[in-house]
C-alpha cells in the first residue's frame, strides 16, 4: 500500500486556497492583504482570526489557535489529520485512489447511521404517498395554499397516510427495532406504530442537509389534533442546533449580505414563495449558542423577524441582545400585530410581504 509522502501532502495543500476553504465555514472580511473572521475556537466578539493568502496560514491573536488548511479543518470539524488531508484533496481534486487511506469512523457517527438512513427512507415514502390517491386531499390542500410542484420538490414535502407504512418498510429493510424507536419515527406501545399519521410532512435537516426529523401538519377541518407535530429530539435531531433551511440558504445569504432569522419553517417557505431565500428558522426553541455559531459561519448581519405578538416581541428583544453580545449586527423587523410572514403572504401575497420587509 502506497504511503502519503511529504511531497504528496504538499501537493494536496497547494491544490486549494486556504481563504476559500475557511470561507466555506466562516464569514470573512478583507483587511489589507489578509482576511479576518470571528474566531470559532474561542468566544470571539471582534474578528480576532487572521487568514493570510500569501502564507496560506490562519492565526487567532486571542486564543493562539493557528496553522495551515489541514489544522483548520482538523480543529473546526473535529476530525483526524488524515481525514483533513483527504478532505482537502477532495476539494482540490487531487487523486488519492492509489493510496488506501482507511479512515476510522468515529463510533458515535457509526451508531447513528441507521437513524439517518431511516429518515432518508421515510422522506422518500412520504413523498411517494403525496402523489397517490391516499394523499390527494393533502395535495389539494397544498395547492390551495399556493404550494407549487416546484416548491414541494424543493422542500421535499410529503404525506404520511393514516395506515402505518414506515414500520413495515423499516422491518423489510432490516432495521433493528431499537433503532426505529430511537429515530422517533416509530412509537412503541402495545404494538409498534408510526408516529406521524394523516399529516402533511415537512422534513427537517441538520446543518449538513441530512434529514434528521419531521414536522407533520394537519390539513382537514375535521382534524382536532395539534396543528403541528414535530419529531422528538434524538441522537441526530437536536433543536438547539437546528436551523431550518440552513444548508440551502448559503448562496442567497452571500448575495444579500444578511440573513433573515425567522420563527418557524412555514415562514421560510412563505418567504421562498415571495422569492426571498436568505432565510433560516429556529424550530420552536429560544436562540442558542449552537444557532449563533452556525449563523456566524454565514454572515454577521442578522435581521430578526419573530412573531409580532407580545410573546414574540419579548423573545425578539432577548435574541437581539444575545446576538449583539456575540458580535452580530442586528436589525429587527417588526411585523404588523400578531402576524408572521406566512400569514402576511396568505393575506397580501408576494407584493404585500415585500412591502412590509422593504421598510427595514
Ligand atoms: Zn481564537
UniProtKB/TrEMBL annotation:
SUPFAM superfamilies: DNA primase core, Zinc beta-ribbon. Pfam families: DNAG_N (PF08275), Toprim_2 (PF13155), Zn_ribbon_DnaG (PF01807). It comes from the Bacteria. InterPro entries: DNA_primase_core_N_sf, DNA_primase_DnaG, DNA_primase_Znf_CHC2, DNAG_N, DnaG_primase, TOPRIM_DnaG_bac, TOPRIM_dom, Znf_CHC2. Keywords: DNA replication, DNA-binding, DNA-directed RNA polymerase, Magnesium, Metal-binding, Nucleotidyltransferase, Primosome, Transcription, Transferase, Zinc, Zinc-finger. Residues 257-338 form the Toprim domain. Transmembrane segments: none annotated. Coiled coil: none annotated. The keyword DNA-binding applies. This is DNA primase. It comes from Allocoprobacillus halotolerans.
